User: What shape does this take?
Amino acid sequence: MAFSWQDYLLLIQEIYQSRASLNYEEAIYRCAISRSYYAAFCGARNFARDNQNYAPSYSGVDHKTIRDHFRQKGIAGADIADKLWDLHRWRIQCDYRDAVRNLPQMTTDAMNRAIQIFSHLSTIAP
Assistant: This one.
């Protein structure tokens, strides 16, 4: 059975909601941003692979080529590409930098963008 990448987003939303009872608030923020990106990225990649003849390499190159693919698909695709770009940049900050500004807002924005990407994908005709 194939993994549902949207489950990453659902899991991190549950963890995020319980953050007040945990002692790892910054780690939760960083994890939420990172997992929101990977949920949206892999969901978009698989949608494009299964419905739009996108041929992923399953390597780091796909992080750029999937955005390029969607940019060529019109307004909805460009919106997906833009949201993936935001998520990708934020994920890199959270995974590599010791200090990241505005983590609470970035977390909310990241989860919202991932939700919007899945919503857009559900409206695009295969």
Notes: The mean pLDDT is 93. Residues 77 and 87 are 15 Å apart (CA to CA). The chain has one domain: 25-123.
